[in-house]
Amino acid sequence: MIPREIFRQIRRIQITTSRMVTDVFAGQYQSVFKGKGMEFCEVREYQPGDEIRSIDWNVTARMGHPFVKKFIEERELTVMLLLDMSKSSYFGTVNKLKSQLAAEICSVLALSANKNNDKIGLIAFTDRVEKFVPPRKGMRHVLRVIREALYFKPRGTGTDIPGAIEYLNRITRRKTVTFIISDFYAPDFKKPLSISNRRHDIITITITDPKEIALPDIGIVKFDDAESGKSYYVDTSDKETRIRYRENAARKFEDRTKLFRSINVDNINIRTDTPYAEELYKFFRIRERRLR
Fold first, then answer.
1. Using one digit for the tens of pLDDT, what is the confidence trace for 98-111?
2. Which residue from 72, 103, 111, 189 has the least number of CB within 10 angstroms?
3. What CATH superfamily is the domain 4-23+76-291?
C-alpha cells in the first residue's frame, strides 16, 4: 500500500511530466528512436517504380506475374533507465536534489515510451545493482517505475557504472534504447560503455549542481564526501582555492565530454539550476537532424 503523501507526490510528477511529454516531445521521441528493423507484412502485385530486389520470386512463379514483398517498420522498442542512486546524487543547492531531478527525467522518458507503446524498464544502482524493474508496457507499470525512481532506498553508497552496464547486458537479449542517468563521478567506465554501445543505443544524461562547478566565497566550510564518508575543511574565502576548484571542475567536465564523444555516445548535460526540458528537447532536435 502506497502512503497517501507518496501517492500525491507521484501523481504530481505524473501530471507535470505528462504535460511536458504532450506539449514538448510530441512526435520527437518516435522520429528519433527507431524500431528493431523491418517486419514482413504481405505480398502485393508489382507496380512500376517498385524495387526489383523486393520481388517475391516464389509467388511470382506461382501466379505468373510479378509480386513484391511489403515490409513495415517493427516499431516496438525496449527502453531501459539506468538510474544512479549513489550518495553523491543526494546533493543539491538550487531548486532540488540531483536525485529528485533524475527521478523527474525518468518520469518524462517513461511516459514518452508509454505514449509510443514501448516497453520501459529500470535498473537502479549504486556500488551494486539495487533494484531491477523488468521492462513492460502500460500506465500502471510506468507509475511503478516513477515510484521506484522517487522513493526506493538504496543500501550502497558508491557508484559502479560498469557493474550496472554488465547487468544490463546480462538481462537483455535484444537491442535497447538505454538512458544512463548519473553525475558520472566514477572511474573506469569507458571500456564497458563503449562495448555496450555497440549492442545498445546508449544515451548518457549527466546531472550537475552549480556548486560542483564553482565554490562561493563563504569562509571555512566543512565538506563531507557522501560516498567515502571522509570529511575535510576548505577555506572558500581563499581566491586561489576557488580558482583551482573551478579549473579542476572544468577539466573533469571537458574530459568526460571528450570520453563520450570518443566512443560515439550521445550525452545530455542537465543542471539543477536550469530547466531540463529545453536540454532534452535540444537533444531530440539535434538527433533528429542527424538521422535525416
1. 999 999 999 889 98
2. 72
3. von Willebrand factor, type A domain (3.40.50.410)
